[in-house]
Design brief:
Helix content: 40-55%
Number of helices: 4
Largest sheet: 3 strands, antiparallel
Number of strands: 3
Length: about 110
Amino acid sequence: MTSNNVAPIEVIKETHRALAVLRALERAPCYRMNELVLMDWLRVVALAATRDELTSTACSLEPFGLVRLGQYDDNRVFELTERGQDVALGRASAEGVLRPGPDCPY
């Protein structure tokens, strides 16, 4: 495997990570959360991510209208959109996001 190829397990983890972020935001007050809390949550559900990986996840969700990104001091704030909520709850699907099953652990 060359350095430009992404390992299949990383692609799978990214789809899980995207779903976990959307579902965490769906349960958050005001549907918003900062990146430090999200990083801790991902660690709890065994999808630990670096800040760069979480930024990559955010940047993949934003163009599809699933989240809005804001900045407060040095922390990025994620905000769920209505479309993001539909994807988080399995009412819609989006490229790069795992569709939740009935017993989704996130």
